[in-house]
Write a structure and sequence with these properties.
Layout (H helix, E strand, L loop, with lengths): L2 H38 L8 H40 L18 H50 L6 H31 L8 E4 H16 L5 E7 L3 E4 L1 H17 L6 E9 L2 E8 L6 H6 L20 H11 L3 E7 L3 E9 L2
Helix pairs in contact: 1-2, 2-3, 3-4, 4-8, 5-6, 6-8
Length: about 350
């Protein structure tokens, strides 16, 4: 319960008690006592009616003073309420938004100044992290490209090499490709955070992309004997970047295959809900806990069933979330019946 509510309840209780006391006093002085004296045949002993009336009026002013105190308390705590609301809206991309200040140099205003200085330092730290990640990933691209080219050249010329060395070169090439993928993902996310990624805004037939993703999923699912089914595919059209939407579908279908069980199933569906395209990708590789569900869209976060068993770095869902939000949509992971997980994507229609 907020401070305002607690103070309001306290003021309300005190004002109600004062009003009840005032009513009882007025009734006792001007109704009950005169009636009792008249019944006894005794004259009214209270001759100074004006003094008694002034006493009742004075007591009646107490609720008015309490109401004024309540109004003044709300006025004084107004800046604190505004600061609390502004602080609740702070995220990593809104650290540069100024916080409201009353500029009267009281405790609340100084607290707002402290918060503003803290958010400024955090914003500077985030900017340094973004710049470092962007520069580091850019610098890593060149040596990784050189290493990949040299390993591919050595692999093509490995006719006279022993089988053990060929396997060693192939293993190194796989690791270089994995590092290259991580660096590319970090570069994309860092540029997206800095607003350096420009998306196309063109009509995209989403149903066509889903059918292409279904064909890709059939190929990826063969080694694990996973069955892929396209339950429904509506011919809907959205406005966006075809390449990024294709990347989104590839990430989600790849996850559905990797985190599935042998002989499992994947169900894809695309339907129209009012003015929204609704995409569902369901796999029965096992449910996810609520704690994991809340963290899975973070960077380098992986589920308990993925660590040490499935290749990946925990950036796929982060990129997927960025693509969906860049298209003004939403993405959620919904555990179903404890053994299934559904990736639900909603995108506005063109």
């Amino acid at each position: 319960m907020t401070i305002i509510k607690r103070l309001g309840i306290g003021y309300g209780v005190m004002a109600s008690a004062c009003v009840l006391l005032l009513v009882w006093l007025w009734y006792h002085e001007f109704v009950d006592e005169p009636a009792e004296f008249a019944a006894r045949g005794v004259g009214d002993l209270h001759q100074d009616t004006a003094a008694e009336l002034s006493t009742v009026l004075f007591l009646g002013a107490i609720p008015v003073m309490l109401a004024f105190g309540w109004w003044w308390t709300r006025r004084v705590l107004g800046p604190l309420r505004a600061l609390t609301h502004a602080a609740e809206q702070i995220e990593s991309n809104t650290l540069n938004v100024p916080l409201p200040r009353s500029m009267n140099n009281d405790e609340v205003d100084r607290l707002a100044a402290v918060f503003a200085a803290m958010t400024a330092r955090l914003d500077a730290s985030f900017q340094q992290i973004h710049e470092f990640t962007l520069h580091a990933s850019h610098e890593l691209k060149t040596p990784l490209t050189v290493m990949r080219a040299q390993l591919e050249t050595a692999l093509h010329e490995s006719v006279s090499l022993p089988a053990a060395q060929t396997d060693w070169i192939e293993s190194l090439l796989d690791e270089v490709q994995r590092l290259t993928k991580i660096v590319d993902s970090l570069t994309l996310l860092t540029k997206a955070d800095a607003g350096l990624v420009t998306l196309e805004r063109k009509p995209v037939p989403l149903g066509e992309l889903v059918r292409e993703a279904f064909d890709d999923a059939l190929i990826m699912a063969q080694p694990q004997r996973v069955r892929v089914t396209l339950d429904e595919c509506a011919d809907v059209q959205i406005t966006g970047d075809r390449h990024r939407l294709r990347q989104l579908l590839l990430i989600l279908t790849d996850n559905a295959v990797k985190y599935n069980r042998p002989d499992g199933e994947i169900h894809l569906s695309l339907c129209k809900r009012d003015s929204t395209a609704e995409l569902r990708i369901t796999n029965d590789g096992g449910g996810i806990t609520p704690e994991t569900q809340r963290r899975l869209f973070g960077r380098f976060v992986r589920g308990e069933n993925a660590i040490g068993t499935v290749e990946g770095c925990g950036l796929g869902l982060t990129i997927a979330q960025w693509i969906v939000q860049a298209h003004n949509g939403t993405i959620d992971l919904l555990p179903e019946a404890g053994v299934k997980t559904t990736a639900l994507v909603r995108l506005p229609l063109a």
